[in-house]
C-alpha cells in the first residue's frame, strides 16, 4: 500500500486511535485489543472514559489527527452515539487529507448493515438522526458507507476472538512498519531493500523458506538484515539474530576445534537453542535435535556475516527443523555458501543510485538530506570517487563532517588519487585523513593486535608509547574507524584488513614490518633469523602451524619488540595447537616486552638473560615451567599473571611480593602447586583463581583487597576466622573441596559478599562464629549496610550454597542475630522449625496479630522446596523463585510485596531455598491481621518442581522489627477488594498482567505447629514488575561474569 508524503512526514503522537461504543466493547473486545497493542509496544490513544457531549472534545479531535491509524469498531450501538458518528467524520477527514489509515472491525453485526444503515444498526441510526440537520445526516451516511467499504475484520467469521485480536494488532504493526524507521534513517533507500526482500520472503505463505542476502563487504547487508529483523520479529513465536560475536562466544568452550567437529556442532546447537528459546538448560545429544525442539514453532532466524558452511549446517541444516511459516535469512558475501545449502531465493544487494548515494553521504557529512550551499559540487565528486559504497560514504562523510568549504579542495587530491571505487582504497582515504602519525600508529596497533580488546587493556599496553592513546582513541571513534561497544574497541573487519595491508606494504621483507601476524611470515622470520628493530609486535595463532623453530638469537635483533603472543584457541585436552622448539642454550628475550603470551612454552624456566622490567602481562598456559626466573624479580609493572595448567609448577617465587600493581592472578589447574608465599599483601590484587590446584591445603592470604576467590577443587581444610579482614570480597567459590571441614561464619561480616559456594564439600561439618566477642554489634551494622542498597533492591544479600553438604548442620546459619542471607541446601522437606509450612506452593491466613503497628518493618524467613529432575547439558541449572506476599489488615485493606531468589545448582534431588525477607510496613493501614503467600518458579520447567514452602515469623518482633531495611518492594494499598487500581486483585494493571496467578491454599497439606490453621483463600495473587526482576537477574549474571571470566578478557 502506498502512503502519501504527508503521512510519512507527519509528526504522530499515537500509532492507533480506536473509535468504539464503550457500552458494547469496552470491557470485552477493547480491553483485549488494547492489551495486545501494549504487548506489541504500539501506542494507542486511551480516552479513559472522558465525559462525552454532543460535540467532539478538542482533545479527541487532536488525538484523531495525531494518530497514524484509526481502528473503527462497529458494534450494534455504535450508531446510537452522536459522539461516535462525529468521531467517524473526523477520521474520514484525516484519511482524505493526510493519508490516515483506517481499519474497520465489525463486531457482532453484518458489515452490510453498516454500509447500508439497515437492520438493528439502521434502526438505531435512524433514531439518532432525529432532530439532526439534513447535511449532518448525509455526512454521517457517507462516512459509514465509505468506511464500511474498506476491507476489515468481521468477528462472526472468527471462531476465536483472541486470534482475531492478535491478527488485527499484527495488521496494525505491518501498516506502521511501512513508515520509515528513525533507527535506519541514514541508510537512504532502506525501504526499497525491504520491499524487494518482502517479495522473496512471501510472509503470507505457511511454507518454511530460506532466503539469502548476498553482496560485497561494506554494501549494507547487515543494516538491511537488522532493519528486517526489527520489522518482522514480532510476527513470529521465536526470533533471533545470530552474528559473528555469538558464533565466537559459542566456540570458546571448544577453542580451536573445527566447526565440522561433531561435538563443536552440538555445542553450537545448544547455544543456538538457548538463544532462540531463551533458556539456559538446553539438553541435546545428537545433531538434528534442533528439529525436535523447533518443528512446531514459527521462528525467524537471521544468520549474519556467514563465512563457514558448517555453521549453516549446524544452525539451519534442514527446513524440516522449523515450524510452519518460519523464515531463515542468511547474510553472506559468499554466494557459494547459499547455493551449496540449496538456497535459491537470493537477494543481491546493489549499490545505491547516484541520487540516493548523494543523500546518504550528506546524511553522514552534514546531518541533512542535501548539501549546504557551496558544497554540492564537492559532495558530488566525493560520492563518485567513493563508488557509492555505503561504508565508504559513511567513513568519508564522517571524516569530512564539520570542515569548512575552504578545507575540502585540499583534501580532494587524496580522494582523486586514492579511490577508484575499491573498498580498500576508499577506507585508506579515511586513514590518511587522520593527519596524525600517532593516531595512525594506534590504528595499526588495533588492526593487528587489539581489535576487540578492552579500552583499558589498550591504554595499558600503549601507556608509555608516547602515542597519546586516550586522545587518539577518541579521534579514531570520531573518524568512524573504530567503535567502542561495552568498553571494547571494535574495528570493522574491512578496516582491519586495510590496516593489515598497510603494515604488509611497509616492506617486502616481513622482518622489516611493524607487526607480524601471518603464520607463514612469522615462521619465515624465525627460520631465517631476519627480524629487525622495526618489529613491535608478533601475534601467532599456534593452531595454524604444526611446529615453530625458534633459534638461539632469534630475538636479539628485535630489540624493540613490545608484544609477543604465541597463543592458542584450542582447549589443552584437544591437543591441536602447534608446538614451539627452543635450543637448550636459548637465553634471551627483549627487555622491551610489555605483553608476553607463550602457549606451550617448552623450557623449565624463563630465559636467564630476560629482564622483564617492562612486562605488564604474562600469560603462560600449558608450559613446562618449574620456576620463572633464576634470581630475577618480577617486574613491578605487571597487572595480570596467568600460569594455568602447568603441572610442573610446585611453588611461586617469593619475588611475587613485588607485584604491587597485579590485579589478576590465574593459577588454575596447577595440580602440583602446594603452597603460596606467606606474609605478603598484594595491594592491587582483585581476582585470584586457584581452581583445580588439588594439593593446595592452606587458605590463601596474599591480599586484603581481594574481590573474587575461586578455590574450587582444592585441598583447603578450613575457611579461617581472619577472612573477615578481606573486606572487599564479593565471591568465594569453594565447590567440591573434599577436605574442607570448617567454615568461619565471619564471612557474613563482609558487607560486599554476594556469593559463597561450598557445594558438595562432603567433609564439611562445622560452621561457627569466632574471633569476635560481639557478634551482635557487627552483624547489626552489617544488616544496615546490606539492606540500604542505592538501587532499592537486596542484591547485596549474601547467597550461600551448601548443596551436597550432607554432614553439615545448617541451623547455625539461622541464629536470630545473623545477617540477612539466602541459603541453598540439600533437603527433602521443609524444616520443622518453619512454623507454617505446606507441601503445596501457597500459604494463606498466616496470623500477624503479634506485629506491632508502630514498628516500621517486619523481618522473617521463607523456605521453598524444589525438586530437580535432570541436569542441563552444561551441568549448571538456574533457579529463580518468586515469592508474592499480600499483607492484609483488620479493615481488609492490603498491600503487596514481591521478592525473589536466584540460585544455581548442579545436583539432582531436593533443594531447600531459604531467604531472609524484610518488608516496610505501610503507615496507611491499621494493624495487620494476616499474610497470604504464593511461591512460583519463574520460567517453569517440567524438570523443576516446587514441592513445598514455609515461613518462619520472628518470636521477638520488637528486636527484629526495629532494624532498618530497604528491600525490592513493589506495593500498593487497596481498600478490600473494591479498588479498580489495585496492584493485586481488582482490575489488572499494566505491571500486573504478565505475572497474574491465584493463591489457593492446599488445605489438606498444611502443617499446623501450634498456630491457627491456615484457611483457603480465593483472593487473586498478582506478581510484580517482572522487568525489574529481569534487570536484577542480568546484574547478577554480569557480576558473576566479571569474576569468573575476567581473567581471559584481555588474554
TrEMBL record:
Residues 12-176 form the TIR domain. It holds the Pfam family WHD_ROQ1. Residues 452-480 form the PLD phosphodiesterase domain. GO terms for molecular function: ADP binding; NAD+ nucleosidase activity, cyclic ADP-ribose generating. Gene3D superfamilies: Helical domain of apoptotic protease-activating factors, P-loop containing nucleotide triphosphate hydrolases, Ribonuclease Inhibitor, Toll/interleukin-1 receptor homology (TIR) domain. Keywords: Hydrolase, Leucine-rich repeat, NAD, Plant defense, Repeat. Its EC number is 3.2.2.6. It catalyses: NAD(+) + H2O = ADP-D-ribose + nicotinamide + H(+). GO terms for biological process: defense response; signal transduction. It is an enzyme of class 3 (hydrolase). This is ADP-ribosyl cyclase/cyclic ADP-ribose hydrolase. It comes from Brassica carinata.
